């Protein structure tokens, strides 16, 4: 949105791209100059060696190559000065475009603020709150019991529940306490304790035994 309003990011991008290209070119020229400086120094050392060896012609050839390298170094130095001047111009241009873009952005924001009234914002928020409250009331109305469920008296149900709880507690209190196990009977030596007579089955126990016998068959 701001890009459409400002209308200058493309120009600013082009300026930055140009600066990057100029810096790359300057770095490349500096590397070439360094290489040529090394070559020129090497030719000087060769000329000294040939001079010691009384090889005047070879020494002169070395000095000629050194001169050529120095001429190239001078040209590269001029190129670098021009690149520096261009970088300064592009930097100033990029700064101007940046300031223009910021100015346009500030104007666009000011225009949007004028188009948005604070009273309209408050009115919109009030409407949202009102709709939220209405929705809450609708949900509460839907959750209200209807028909037979609406006729139930909550107090009456609570009282009935208390009566049930009281009756259950009373029933637990009236249950007989568990009897302690009988102490073992001491039998004198030499006597066999008599077995208790089997208890007579109840009618229900007999029916259960007969049913288990049939199932075993």
TrEMBL record:
Keyword terms, alphabetized: Coiled coil
Biological-process GO terms, alphabetical: late endosome to vacuole transport via multivesicular body sorting pathway; vesicle budding from membrane
Chain residue ranges for the region called Disordered: 176-217
Coiled coil feature spans: 12-39, 121-174
Keyword Coiled coil recorded: yes
GO cellular component: cytoplasmic side of plasma membrane; ESCRT III complex; multivesicular body
Tagged with keyword Coiled coil: yes
Composition-biased stretches (Low complexity): 176-189
Top-rank taxon, per record: Eukaryota
Protein name, per record: Vacuolar protein sorting-associated protein
Organism of provenance: Sesamum angustifolium
